[in-house]
User: Fold this.
Amino acid sequence: MILVPVTYKGGIYRHDEIIDLIEDLGGYIIQKHMIAQEVVLQALVPKDDIELIRRIGKPLTGEVTPSPLVGTEIAVVTMSLEIHHLPHASCDVAEYIRRFGAKTNMIGLARGFGKRISQMNDEERDVINEHDCAVYLLGDFETCIKHKFPVLRRGIDVPIILCGGPPTDVLKTLIDPPVDGYVGGVGRFMHRTKESEELSKMDEVVDEVTRVLDRKREVMAKDPLSISPARLMDIIYEKIDEIHDVLSPTPITVQMAGLRVKLPYDTFASLLRKTEIDEGITIGDLADVHPSRMRDYILLRIKPFSETNMVV
Assistant:
């Protein structure tokens, strides 16, 4: 069964029927938003059953749209939190990517600005590496990008999508060794992206992120995970009662190869490791449990089949 990421938008009335349908078909609800009289469900659903969900949702004013980034967590890296780097370019990119299902976190570097002093500390590097990929938002000047980027990429293990003011072909010539993706024409700007040309640039960013993550999925498929992150999320919701007391909109953030569980590491790490998935199989058997550098959260990294010799 192949699960594909989609977004369902419809009225609140009888939306529980759609949730039950997705779960009965073997899908997973990744995130649920209640906005006034509308409900938005980000889900992974069986590919063959999308038309069934559309048909049942139509009388409920429901609409199903593809959302290729559902189940991913993306770092949007800006050079500083000062006014000439924030808020417009970074906020617009982060918000636009979120429309396609991704969970985005903005990371403003403490010393990312300036050619001579630009640098990244260990905590910033570790936080970026906890994500599925990183979108770097640099400035408009070629010499600045060429000089600063080698320092800012050092130690980053996740795929990088580089955005900057110069055209895409120019960005590719500036960066050696190359990164995973490039989007030119997205530099610093002091207004919201409202015009059609500006929105098309946001679409280019989404397309490039999608392309890079699809390639990452192809690599992961050669050595599949021991358990689906979405299924592991459901198990934690079922067996760890305290997760329901978390006030964050996403108490558990689904990633491509793991989860970010927003519970204190010292208190719940050992409990998570011992939580049973199936008879005789625990979370600790299938996933590494690490402290996150983001607050005091827990980071689960699911092991591939080659390490565990099992898929549940």
